[in-house]
Amino acid sequence: MSSPTIYDVARAAGVSTATVSKVINNTGRISAKTREKIQRIMEDLNYSPNVIASAMKGKSTYQIAFLIPDVSNPIYAEYLKHIEESGQEFGYNIVMCSTDNQADKESRHITLLKQRRVDGLIIASKFNNAAVLRQLIDEKFPLVLFAHERPELPVPSVTVDDYIGGYMAASHLISLGHRRIGVLAEDSLSSKDRIRGYQCALTEAGLAVQENLIVVSGPSVSDSEMAAANLLDREDRPTAIFGCNDLLAIGVLQACRARGIRVPDQLSVIGFDDTQLCSIVSPKLTSIAQPIRKLSKETIDMIIRMIEQADTPKQRIKMLPEISIRESTAKLAQA
Amino acid sequence: MSSPTIYDVARAAGVSTATVSKVINNTGRISAKTREKIQRIMEDLNYSPNVIASAMKGKSTYQIAFLIPDVSNPIYAEYLKHIEESGQEFGYNIVMCSTDNQADKESRHITLLKQRRVDGLIIASKFNNAAVLRQLIDEKFPLVLFAHERPELPVPSVTVDDYIGGYMAASHLISLGHRRIGVLAEDSLSSKDRIRGYQCALTEAGLAVQENLIVVSGPSVSDSEMAAANLLDREDRPTAIFGCNDLLAIGVLQACRARGIRVPDQLSVIGFDDTQLCSIVSPKLTSIAQPIRKLSKETIDMIIRMIEQADTPKQRIKMLPEISIRESTAKLAQA
DNA sequence: ATGAAAGCGCTAACAA
DNA sequence: TTGTTAGCGCTTTCAT
């Protein structure tokens, strides 16, 4: 036999379903007495309202979708962890969707999610499918970009300040005496901003920016290990390398190991994201930390605001990163 | 303006909603002509059926909840990745719920998930809340335990064969000449099975099982690093250690580094789960691999069967692990 | 082969 | 303060 409905409660309490509905939703005015009676009966019957039915009346489903390329990438797993945690606080469940960075998966997901009437969408990836994105915006579908931006589109976002982050990474290295600093970057907007920050720090320190010290790599550790060759196997090898995310920096670490280059004695390495991997590798990786918990909280707040009242003004929030210094960076050895 | 409904389609096609519903669901009999016409109109209108409304008529919500303690633990992230992937194949979305191993979070989640009418539940954790579990079973709520068992309860599960896995780990070490093999375990059922397998391998090889070589640790890398002291700082230090999961094994690696013990020259280390961490640490970790992709596929198949027809016989499936040999295990050096 | 109509469980005017 | 009632968008039985 199935769960009791609002009718069962109403009957048992000798009132109408409207009255019961009112006590459930805390709307209208009902005497303390009936309220209590109804509440007691709901407990006795172990009644719990059917969210599906109330969603049919235009109410929330209390579900937010979170789109990411790949959870097995630790940075996305950490995003998800905190997004879920923050959602939980407000009674929202998170529907997790992997996109693999494929435009068709993205649009298929969006279609399904809309059919399922999720209340909102948080996108934490490049999102290749610009057309779909634009349509979502036109429809005023509650949508927030997380850890990623789309400056050309009127869409709210919550991100870390990548520019400052890149600046901090480079400054740290410069302060240790390094003057030839290589960069391993991904082909992404945030990498570009991180590079701009790096360049700014160099310039400020009176150092020349050398384009050939900036190399682009695929996203995986092994891609990065390969790409690092371009930096490590040259005559004028840099004395420090900034990996635009931890995976890339770890690739550099592995490339060094393969070549017998000692980190940090012969080469300093810094990452970005400050994932849990940093304390697992050896030497432990210095990295720029995103304030993920705060970012997530802000994102959930923002999307709930958008869900609850359609015409919330759109914002872009940028938060400041912090540096976590560990073992992979050190003072430049005197030549 | 909101999305078109089945009424809009019916009106445009000059038929009843019943007919439209039939073509959507491929039920009843309708002439090829009307079918085509309706399909064309649905496309024109960019109509997509409201899953919420059809769920109200007792149909699926196409949502499956996946409960795990913590996504930021890479093994759970990998589970999630593959569960989501397999779900996607059948049009199911995954609602991800963190439990933090807390009984009250578990039960709160279950309550909400039931209100939201998710079709089924996959639980990949200890699940402390036995009462709730029992109730779910009584209600015949579609439920599968993943990578974890509950032998005393009539509940289906899909797991790796931990016993064999432990046996394989120990056998590998024994075949390399090790005779004093320590174990670092978690306080969990699967660790216990892995230990039993280890003991069996020892006994078979004519080696005595020494209880004091088996030490229990907390779940994190740093817990394990602490606990490893009990094995590493004794006179008769083992020559090999089996970490009952990769995180524990990595803790051992770190403890070794702190003590200047060279792996694998002075100590062999083997893990379990074969997460991506294995190729990130140094030396790369030998580990026992779960066939996660197959496990996930099987789990999704099973739960969908349970969703679609209530009285599916319950099964417990156990799959065989495989060993991935990397750099952390080596022949015992002659004394 | 198609349609009329009832109803899933709930909410919100509006009436009383 | 409480109840009546009309849907929300869809499925399904039973007629036609």
Considering residues with a beta carbon less than 8 A from a beta carbon on another chain, report the largest interface and each chain's count. Answer: A-B, 48 and 49 residues
Number of helices of chain A: 12
Give the helices and strands of chain A as they follow along the chain. HHHHEHEHEHEEHEHEHEHEEHEE
The gyration radius over C-alpha positions of chain A equals 26 Å
Describe it.
The structure is a homodimer. With about 325 residues, chain A is an alpha/beta fold. Chain A folds into 3 domains: about 5-50, 434 Repressor (Amino-terminal Domain), CATH 1.10.260.40; about 65-160 and about 290-320, Response regulator (Rossmann fold, 3-Layer(aba) Sandwich); about 160-290, Rossmann fold (3-Layer(aba) Sandwich), CATH 3.40.50. Chain A contains 12 helices and 12 strands. The first copy, chain A, has helices at about 5-15, 15-25, 30-45, 50-55, 75-90, 105-115, 130-140, 160-175, 190-205, 220-230, 245-260, 290-310; strands spanning about 65-70, 95-100, 120-125, 145, 155-160, 180-185, 215, 240-245, 270-275, 285-290, 315-320, 320-325. In chain A, the strands form 2 sheets. Chain A has a 6-stranded parallel sheet with strand order 2-1-3-4-5-11, with helices on both faces. The first copy, chain A, has a 6-stranded mixed sheet with strand order 7-6-8-9-10-12, sandwiched between helices. In chain A, helix 7 (about 130-140) links the parallel strand 3 (about 120-125) and strand 4 (about 145). The longest helix of chain A is centred in the C-terminal third of the chain and has 17 residues, at about 290-310. The N and C termini of chain A lie far apart (about 80 Å). Strand 2 of chain A pairs antiparallel with strand 2 (about 95-100) of chain B. The first copy, chain A, binds a DNA duplex (16 and 16 nucleotides) through helix 2 and helix 4.
